[in-house]
Structures are given as structure tokens and as C-alpha cells.
Amino acid sequence: MPVYEFVCPACRTHFDELRPAREADDRAWCPTCATEAVRQLSRFAFKKATRGSASDATTSVTPHARGCACCLPSPSRSRRG
Predict the structure, then answer these.
(1) Which residues contact 31 (CB under 8 A, 6 or more apart)?
(2) pTM of the entire structure?
């Protein structure tokens, strides 16, 4: 089940809700002031394991596919002489 992030436009409270994907667009109410909250784009972090840590065996980083859009030079950089 995904976790969805919300922010209240009235009191600026940030909160998360664990709900099924089929309920992703359902309304969420602020736990502080009961105002209808706005769903936010989720942000997440990935921490690469350091050498010698216990999670080395379970953590793997897959390199991007050759020529993926994020690894290609930007058009502005390629135009420079």
C-alpha cells in the first residue's frame, strides 16, 4: 500500500496517509484543523550502503540504461564550442 503525502492549505500541517492505490484520489482531511488537504508530490531518498555495512548484500544500485535522458548532455552544453 502506498503512502501519500498531504499538506493543509489552512494551517500548513504536513501529514502522510497509508491507503490503497484505488483510494489515491479520495479526499484527505487535516488531522489538526479538519480542512480538506492537498496531496503533494512525494519525495523519497535513497541512501547507498557504504563498504562493510551489513546491508551491502541487500542494497544494489542499478546503473541507468546507456543513453538515458538524464545522462545525456543537455542541448545548451552540447552547443558550446
Answers:
(1) 13, 15
(2) 0.52
Closest-CA residue to 31 (of 12, 47, 51, 50): 12
> Over the stretch 6-23, which tens digit does the pLDDT of each residue have?
999 999 999 999 999 899
CA separation, residue 31 to residues 12, 36, 38, 52, 75 (Å): 11, 10, 13, 42, 46
Q: How many CB atoms lie within 10 A of CB 28?
A: 19
CA 4 from chain centre, in angstroms, equals 10
* Residue 46 confidence class, pLDDT cut points 50, 70, 90: low
